[in-house]
Write a sequence for this structure.
């Protein structure tokens, strides 16, 4: 990979492509169009899990077809709705230093590094980072301790306070936090799964979650025992890295918007 002086990583999540629900495919199509009309086109796109609703080959075929207008590399990981074997078959090998059993790999965009984590547990809604996956993460972080790193995964290592969400959370989050805490080069941990945009301090770095491509959810935090949400417009995350400013993340509402001049470099206009 060439050394870039700046880099823009776009994050989509929870596309849930479903042949029986055309709105899911239409939402992903709109998200792809949105990324292609951004003022600065992303260098890469990550999809943080739940690519398909049922993990069927036909769903992944449609998912790939909908992504084809993107001219940049696209990297995917499984969520709880995915089927690991079918997702692997659809996308083949990704990145380098991949695990044989899990969709867990490294993408080198010197001087920025992306690490994909696999939290999928077949047949379960919750996620897991087992000893094997955590050990391999430790190895990957230790071999490049000076390289700014972004980790992306499906199940976020957080407690939302909304009980139905937290019941399908991530096992192994504590051990994961200990590893991240040992490696200050981790500039961001990003996830999906909860269909909400959140930001939290985590293990010496920043943890963010990306909403689903069809919509975002704002929960009623006054009723933590229920999953009562206010639907909001879908959004994606744009992780912008420069050597001077490190990693700055923008939330971009999905849609078609004009570019408006507010300052011409000299004065406000």
């Amino acid at each position: 990979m060439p050394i870039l002086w700046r880099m823009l990583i776009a994050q989509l999540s929870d596309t849930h492509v479903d042949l029986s629900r055309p709105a899911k495919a239409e939402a992903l199509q709109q998200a792809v169009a949105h990324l292609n009309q951004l003022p600065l086109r992303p260098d890469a796109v990550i999809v943080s899990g739940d690519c398909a609703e049922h993990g069927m080959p036909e769903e992944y075929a449609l998912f790939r077809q909908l992504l084809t207008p993107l001219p940049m590399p696209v990297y995917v990981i499984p969520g709880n709705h995915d089927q690991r074997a079918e997702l692997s078959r659809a996308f083949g090998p990704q990145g380098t230093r991949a695990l044989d059993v899990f969709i867990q790999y490294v993408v080198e965009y010197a001087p920025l590094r992306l690490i994909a984590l696999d939290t999928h547990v077949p047949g379960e809604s919750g996620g897991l980072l087992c000893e094997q996956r955590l050990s391999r993460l430790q190895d990957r972080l230790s071999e490049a301790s000076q390289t700014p790193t972004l980790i992306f995964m499906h199940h976020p290592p957080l407690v939302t306070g909304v009980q139905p969400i937290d019941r399908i959370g991530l096992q192994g989050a504590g051990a994961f936090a200990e590893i991240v805490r040992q490696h200050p080069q981790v500039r961001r941990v990003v996830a999906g799964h909860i269909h909400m945009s959140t930001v939290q301090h985590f293990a010496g770095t920043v943890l963010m979650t990306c909403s689903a491509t069809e919509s975002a959810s704002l929960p009623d935090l006054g009723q933590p025992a229920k999953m009562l949400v206010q639907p909001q417009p879908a959004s994606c995350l744009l992780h912008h890295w420069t050597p001077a400013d490190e990693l700055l993340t923008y939330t971009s509402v999905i849609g078609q918007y004009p570019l408006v001049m507010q300052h011409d470099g000299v004065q406000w206009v």
Remarks:
- The mean pLDDT is 95.
- The radius of gyration is 18 Å.
- DSSP finds six helices and 15 strands in the chain.
